[in-house]
Specification:
It contains 4 helices and 4 strands. The chain has helices spanning 2-15, 21-72, 111-116, 123-139; strands at residues 84-88, 96-104, 140-149, 156-165. The protein has a 4-stranded antiparallel β-sheet with strand order 1-2-3-4. A hairpin with a 6-residue loop joins strand 3 (140-149) and strand 4.
Length: 183
């Protein structure tokens, strides 16, 4: 009987019908690596999706705020536009806020460009350029509107610059009595 048992034991050990411990450990490592890669992929996709949603919300709020500002100051004098103003979007969007900064429009001096052209520019052209530069500086105001999303350490900011024009100012036409220099 002992010989029969020994023979059966040898044949069972020799047939290798199961997995060894090394094979099981390697299979678990492959599965764990696959799960790790899949989990990282999902979290990365989620983070990108969340950031995209925030950016879309910021753009929509920025567009809404610019429209509100344009409506509020449309037929008013440029002096009524405050230099700085800020607020939030209420309890519905507590992480979002907005800021307005305005300043006088500074028209660049184009006389150097006119003089450097072939033939240069005469004194009359330079005088007219000066009159219109002054006129634009008085009738245009530069407004920067920002929307800020605060979450964590670094806030996300999107801003846009618009120009409000006072159409009620008379044009400085020489000899027309329109607020400009007359000769």
């Amino acid at each position: 009987m002992r010989a029969l048992f020994s023979k059966q034991l040898k044949s069972a050990l020799g047939s290798k019908k199961g997995f060894t411990l090394i094979e099981v450990v390697l299979a678990l490592m492959v599965m764990a690596s696959g799960l790790f890669i899949l989990t990282n992929s999902w979290s990365g996709t989620y983070n990108r999706l969340r950031k995209t949603q925030i950016q879309v919300q910021i753009a929509a709020l920025l567009e809404r705020k610019v429209t509100e500002i344009e409506r509020e100051y449309k037929n008013k004098s440029l002096e009524s536009i405050p230099e700085e103003k800020e607020d939030n979007f209420g309890s519905e969007l507590p992480q979002y806020s907005w800021k307005l900064k305005s300043k006088k429009f500074e028209m660049p001096d184009l006389s150097a460009a006119l003089i450097s052209q072939d033939g240069g520019a005469d004194q009359t052209t330079l005088s007219l350029m000066k009159v219109y530069t002054d006129y634009l500086s008085k009738t245009v105001k530069e407004i920067n509107v920002s929307v800020i999303f605060k979450e964590g350490k670094k806030p996300l900011v999107a801003d846009v610059t618009i120009y409000m024009i006072d159409y009620n100012q008379p044009l400085p036409l020489p000899g027309a009595g329109g607020g400009g220099a007359t000769q």
